[in-house]
Amino acid sequence: MTNFWLMKAEPNSRIVKGKDVKFSVEDFEAVGITSWEGVRNPEARNLMKGMRVGDKVLFYHSSCKTPGPYMHMEILPIEAYPDYTAWDPKHPYYDPKSEEANPKWFMVDVKFISRASHFVPYRLLRQIAASNVTLPTGLEYLGEKDARVVKDMDLIRRGRLSVQRVQPEAWDVIKRMTEKGGWSEEVVKGEKDGEGRTTIVVGVGGKRKRENENETKTVNGERGRSRVKILNR
DNA sequence: GCCAACGTTGGC
DNA sequence: GCCAACGTTGGC
């Protein structure tokens, strides 16, 4: 049975021990196949150990201007194997506690399959998770159940793990969103208003300039208790 | 740069 | 085994 996952990578340059740890969706597409080294969290490692041939994975852009998942990559026919970068003192991912005789960290190989037609911003997923009744304009093809599925994602509930399990229902929602879109990618951005709340502007069909086709939604800044207020303008 | 969430470390 | 201090993650 196919299982679904999410794995995070950083698309922006960041120098660790003189080496750039950047790995964007463009980098991934260019290289095609890569080992997923550098995971240094026990829970994330254990999840990788449970990955099987053909499992599907969302490739997630993290620590960047517009974070979010891309479709999709696949686990190659090989079990998790020791992450040898942990043994190299000069490597950014060196961990003196991992010995060759008794490796602490493991990795899998993944293959690039395809990029999303519509990139799904994390902020949009948060907005969907926060909207109890009204889904953002342009996303009418999603139902209340879909919103609940998004709300239940580890990505929303926990956030901080770099390898996560994705429920089949959540995979289905993300997949539909990447196929259908309905929002304007360059427009989905968070802005603080005067009261410190985050304002999320969702453009419809890329018509950002036509004011009356847009809605402005204000999400209460408090974590975990988001409320959506529609301020038509 | 800020900071909340959460994991790890180490003294006891 | 407790828990305070500290470090990391990652969206904002």
UniProtKB/TrEMBL annotation:
Biased composition regions of type Basic and acidic residues, renumbered to the chain: 210-225
Signal peptide: none
Domain (EVE) ranges: 3-176
Keywords noted in UniProt: Nucleus
UniProt keyword annotation of Nucleus present: yes
SUPFAM superfamilies named in the record: PUA domain-like (SSF88697)
Major localization listed first in the record, in broad terms: nucleus
InterPro entries attached to this UniProt entry: 5hmC_binding (IPR052181), EVE_domain (IPR002740), PUA-like_sf (IPR015947), THYN1-like_EVE (IPR047197)
Cellular component aspect of the GO annotation: nucleus
Span list, region Disordered: 207-233
Compartments in which it is found: Nucleus
Record flagged with keyword Nucleus: yes
Matching PANTHER family: THYMOCYTE NUCLEAR PROTEIN 1
Stated name of the protein: PUA-like domain-containing protein
Organism annotation: Multifurca ochricompacta
